[in-house]
């Protein structure tokens, strides 16, 4: 594995191997001394063209626990203009001696360009690009699901995960549909038709507009997607109230889930919109655990990309 | 002035014959050619070559004035000559915009001075392409540039009242309104064709309906007011259907397709390489098939390049930050040969129709797109259809490198291009006009 | 023609482990506070075997010392664990990415214990160096000792084994292969010359051939 750009890059075995490595990493994180020397002397650049304190901190913690040096490069707000910014920044990073670049970018495909345009030759980890992919989020979600639903081993064969919300603009939804399907899970997307992309019928999942119907179908986990505030004013749905009523996870819907079913949310949550406080704070909710798991998964990704002989390996 | 004796060439791919070009015209054909040729005439062994009337592009961006870093009238028309063209229509989205007689005359004059191909400036429909007020269309029509094609290309004349007025007003001087059909509200931030691929790779979609809705409206407007409508770079199966319907109703509409919409699909966007970013976007394989079928059955009248050179920095970046457009003058004929001739739906006469006769007629370019016959202007191109070449933008004549066909093998090679009897391309080599070398005869 | 010769048969391996078990008991005056940690992969079954033998021998020994204990001998168990050194290796970027195995410490941990590291082959000493670093992150043992089934020489670090099954002079071009029933189906230690093809069944050739170096 040379880069991690999309969960479609991972076949089942590669995905399971990453999750297994993440389990091993998680085990080290219960020790008093959490720092491991594996990536000592390596420099990892967090290149964030979009604000995301949570993701950046998670990657930073992961890199530091593996003893890598971390440089945070926040390009947002600086004088970067169109086009030249990504290439010039990439070449700056090369000059600095970055051994890996973790990139968050508002433009879909920017990490792909960084990896393949010939500007730099380091591994690239996609930390979220536009409406495209957020593979480490999907991995941490799968990791969380696997811990609860499969004893932290193997894949998610036969499990049913319902993903609810703004699928159209969501890189989390795209990454999760791909990865969960690869891991053998059944995925159902639930959204108002305005928030589903044209072409979604080709995805490896079922699609419905009816949340209540979806929740009656042997659900093992419900993943609630964040609804961006700006969607509310651009006519994708009539009002917050109507969205919450039709697509929000509230106490009543929570009560209809079977006992083992989990509630996931990538955060940050809009309480009262896509998720009620009752659902967010219920024992089924893995929201906080997801954050902790994020560090282990990102350690596994950085380790897998960097702690190996890079010669002769293609994209995985 | 010495001329050229073109031996054993196949005009429009038909029976081989000889041509004698002299004093800007075809002076003899067949046996007469050799007998009338003198020792001073250059003899071209054209055995295996096809002679076509010089190609006429209805849709070229020459970028001058304003973006001479990406193309100039000189480099763009040299690229045109290399692609077999003898006339090109230069789009109006320059800086300043070609919305006055002054700007169109300047572009026309630059073309004349460069000497590679006749430049027919396209006038903007609205002032500054802003879509608010009509530009002085009449002044441009009566200028030295004799503008007949008007377009806000790059922008859609979206306001239906303004479009109606443009279609009406241009009737006074036999003009044609060439519409870039793109419903703006349906294409806010649009990056690529909206469909399976865009859903997967997360780029904002440019739905087919945004093109089709405007075309449907415009053909009805053209019917209502009786003006001449030309639909630019039609790209979807639905658009082909609407044009077919409109023509069946007798509406005065013509349509063009680009080489890239005849060959490439939205699957290429998966690479996120902005060289494949173009407006209208590359569509699906079904759309490509429909556009080819529409070209084959005459629903689509012409192939036009939409040659859109861009600076390296505007393509060597992430997709969303990149400019729309691809170069096309030097690959157009090759693509048409591959997808239409080699697939069996076109003869070389059909190629001449869609790349020369019809575009000249639409643009009211009188001395191009003529038959290959005695007394006709010697605007010709000689193509070797058996050649195959791998496209390398670095060796092209255009000043830009954004060819989506880079690295692809395409058939055919333009060996000679003649503009009024002068070889602008002589055995694949570009030859400066004598007026520019100081070597006056 | 590559040649492979077996240098330790199954019964020799067994005898060597029994001897080492006794040496450990003797040197540490019994099995109290001992913790055996195997270095994956083949150090782990070796540690488990050794722990069994130490327990057996210690139980017999205790019986001998206290023959009049009417309750009979208390069953002796020696805690065993395994310690993954992958993240501590100094050649981490020179090899293909390795999978991690879990580190398992016995209940009671390693603080103030005598930790006996167990590996199959001692060669450059780099694995042991990594294991010592890993140990330091896990706790503070009172002392650390090292068992190796085979010491093939060519040390690159100031490290020596406290207990050696067999000293095996080798050329660096040779490969030492340890096979254990728990992993490979049978016990044997063999040497092959450089031209010998790697065992096709081996899941991690670099680690079957030369221990965990």
Automatic annotation (TrEMBL), chain A:
One of its GO terms (cellular component) is cytosol. Keywords: Pyrimidine biosynthesis, Transferase. Residues 2-146 form the Aspartate/ornithine carbamoyltransferase carbamoyl-P binding domain. Residues 158-304 form the Aspartate/ornithine carbamoyltransferase Asp/Orn-binding domain. L-aspartate binds at residues 82, 171, 226. Gene3D superfamilies: Aspartate/ornithine carbamoyltransferase. SUPFAM superfamilies: Aspartate/ornithine carbamoyltransferase. Its EC number is 2.1.3.2. One of its GO terms (molecular function) is amino acid binding. Heterododecamer (2C3:3R2) of six catalytic PyrB chains organized as two trimers (C3), and six regulatory PyrI chains organized as three dimers (R2). Catalyzes the condensation of carbamoyl phosphate and aspartate to form carbamoyl aspartate and inorganic phosphate, the committed step in the de novo pyrimidine nucleotide biosynthesis pathway. NCBIfam families: asp_carb_tr, PRK00856.1. This is Aspartate carbamoyltransferase. It comes from Serinibacter arcticus. The lineage of its organism: Bacteria, Bacillati, Actinomycetota, Actinomycetes, Micrococcales.
TrEMBL record, chain C:
It holds the Pfam family Pribosyltran. One of its GO terms (biological process) is regulation of DNA-templated transcription. It catalyses: UMP + diphosphate = 5-phospho-alpha-D-ribose 1-diphosphate + uracil. Keywords: Glycosyltransferase, Transcription, Transcription regulation, Transferase. Its EC number is 2.4.2.9. SUPFAM superfamilies: PRTase-like. Residues 196-205 have a biased composition (Low complexity). It is an enzyme of class 2 (transferase). InterPro entries: PRTase-like, PRTase_dom, PyrR, PyrR_bifunctional. A motif (PRPP-binding) lies at residues 115-127. Residues 11-169 form the Phosphoribosyltransferase domain. Regulates the transcription of the pyrimidine nucleotide (pyr) operon in response to exogenous pyrimidines. Belongs to the purine/pyrimidine phosphoribosyltransferase family. PyrR subfamily. NCBIfam families: PRK05205.1-3, PRK05205.1-5. This is Bifunctional protein PyrR. It comes from Serinibacter arcticus.
